Amino acid sequence: MTRLILATRNAGKINELKAILAEAGITHELVGAEAFPDVPDVKETGVTFAENALLKAHALARATGLPAVADDSGLCVDVLGGAPGIFSARWAGTHGDDKANLELLLAQLKDIDTAHRGAHFACAAALALPDGTERVVEGRLRGTLRRSPEGTNGFGYDPILQPEGEMRTCAELTPQEKNAISHRGKAFRALVPVVRELLG
To answer: How many CA atoms within 13 Å lie on the side-chain side of 185?
Structure first.
């Protein structure tokens, strides 16, 4: 059985990919980056989600000698030309300050009519092998941005994105409902045939 490493220390993300692989009948053992504490975190210096995902996957594959999966994701707002995009987690300046990021984005969109508040979550998932072989797939979740946060599930911009065909925000969905339609779920599911092709 091939070991597959996912470039994250987030248990939720590891469990999500495990479930998707198991559902597809893929039995490779999946471990997170915490299984290799000596491997340093990778600076995300790419200018696209795909570049950042590949940077992380290649670094991990080289450091561990194992096939590695990494993802990068963010919110792309139509009227902002796709921003915050790769800067989603640090839009307000400090990496990972969800509240500040949300407040800044809502302030920037204050005068934008509902008809023009379209946006999507995007996720690129990459698989890299130690020999340099690579593949990238993407997933998207389109929706509209609310004027104020609603819901307590999820994280990041989940409380303001209302998916197409939904009356609730991503943060009002159950984790199961969100995984079924999420950009990351779509990208991870698109990775299944790639894992099959490259790892058997």
So the answer is: 13
